[in-house]
Design a protein that fits this description.
By secondary structure, the chain is α+β, with helices and mostly antiparallel strands. It has two helices and two strands. A two-stranded parallel sheet has the order 1-2.
Length: 71
Amino acid sequence: RLMNNALDAVQALCIEHSGSQVSDYLSFSAGLCSTVPDELVKPDDLIRCADAALYEAKARGRARIIFSELE
């Protein structure tokens, strides 16, 4: 919900993005990942999970937020 609010707030600012061929205004996408910490989960695993979620968000189009869970 926090990231959706942030996305809405950025879009409401209508910041011009003259260099974009996709949109006249700035937007962002985000990839989020969560897990229940334990001794087997390494920080790099969490980073890779969030990175994969970000690439999925970008693949789905602009102004997207993808949430993933590391199991």
